Amino acid sequence: MAAPKSCALWSYCGRGWSRAMRGCQLLGLRSSWPGAPLSARLLSQEKRATKTHFGFETVPEEEKGGKVYQVFESVAKKYDVMNDMMSLGIHRVWKDLLLWKMRPLPGTQLLDVAGGTGDIAFRFLNYVQSQHQSKQKRQLRAQQNLSWEEIAKKYQNEEDSLGGSRVVVCDINKEMLKVGKQKALAQGYRAGLAWVLGDAEELPFDDDKFDIYTIAFGIRNVTHIDQALQEAHRVLKPGGRFLCLEFSQVNNPLISRLYDLYSFQVIPVLGEVIAGDWKSYQYLVESIRRFPSQEEFKEMIEDAGFHKVTYESLTSGIVAIHSGFKL
Ligand SMILES: COc1cc(O)cc(C/C=C(\C)CC/C=C(\C)CC/C=C(\C)CC/C=C(\C)CC/C=C(\C)CC/C=C(\C)CC/C=C(\C)CC/C=C(\C)CC/C=C(\C)CCC=C(C)C)c1O
Ligand SMILES: C[S@@+](CC[C@H](N)C(=O)[O-])C[C@H]1O[C@@H](n2cnc3c(N)ncnc32)[C@H](O)[C@@H]1O
């Protein structure tokens, strides 16, 4: 597996450090190389010693990104079928609920980070298209004197059918995006949709670009969650909304016992049987247990500068949707 080029960038913690590293990269330098300035080498050694978690494993920070990349490269082709099997289709309801919470207005510019195979983007396009069609129907009913040609013209323009709304799917993994693009082609999604390879911790977009930022089942995999949240804040327009759908903490002790049983005894077995990949699904359930609780995550979102942060737990807290605004 070839880790993405931006792998070296995973070994930073703050923005300044990231920029310095990027500068070194552009100059073809690495801070660990003997030719690099002493201060950069010392910082690099310090960073190398910083540990994080990959599921229940403790790993050096700079290794986590590569490991996560491998997981999703490995599961990409079976990803959608696995989700339906493991969740008995419930993940579809959770994703629909995210859209209902979002209620995008005509002309919404959405960025779906860690968008993978496009589930959120396709739901968004369906939603805005049906909203726009209803609006057009209402307008047509009000303009009874239009000719048939004029009516047909209104329905023909594909770009127009979305009322100016657009979605950009951004994901770090080429294989996940490849599967997503194939799905889009097969299901006839073309207009208003773009696919971008990029890291949630260092988004390849200008400041104040998007009305809504979504991340579904993605942020748990990011090495520096605080950095990803700051990036979300940066790319949103003032007034823009952050929405995150992620596994969370089950508070009912009985459900929690059943959930643990299902997670640890069933999910990796399904992973092995269906996708031939026990390890990736073991990582999935372990990473869920490592993720902060609803309240802790809410605080992290507030720390990144978001206001009016709220959350809603779904299915007894198996997942939660967090929402916040950039003011
Ligand atoms: C590598 O990384 C990943 C790979 C991926 O493919 C996906 C993701 C990201 C995840 C998504 C996009 C979401 C979709 C994927 C999942 C939901 C899989 C993860 C699943 C869990 C962590 C477990 C929770 C699942 C659910 C609540 C869905 C519903 C499932 C059931 C109700 C289980 C029913 C199954 C059986 C009855 C089969 C027999 C099971 C046993 C013998 C074991 C014992 C099990 C039980 C007694 C029942 C299980 C009970 C629960 C799960 C709790 C029920 C809770 C309530 C009803 C509130 C990715 O990062
Ligand atoms: C469980 S999938 C979620 C896909 C999709 N959002 C969904 O709900 O089905 C997690 C995705 O996060 C992506 N990912 C992991 N780390 C990332 C990062 N640092 N930046 C962008 N995407 C990342 C993975 O490549 C993968 O496609």
UniProtKB/TrEMBL annotation:
Localization annotation: Mitochondrion inner membrane
Membrane topology according to the record: Peripheral membrane protein
Keyword Ribonucleoprotein: no
Residues reported in the UniProt entry to bind S-adenosyl-L-methionine: T117, D171, D199, A200
One Gene Ontology CC term in the entry: extrinsic component of mitochondrial inner membrane
Principal localisation: mitochondrion
Subunit note: Component of a multi-subunit COQ enzyme complex, composed of at least COQ3, COQ4, COQ5, COQ6, COQ7 and COQ9. Interacts with PYURF; the interaction is direct, stabilizes COQ5 protein and associates PYURF with COQ enzyme complex.
Protein name from the UniProt record: 2-methoxy-6-polyprenyl-1,4-benzoquinol methylase, mitochondrial
Gene transcribed to yield this protein: COQ5
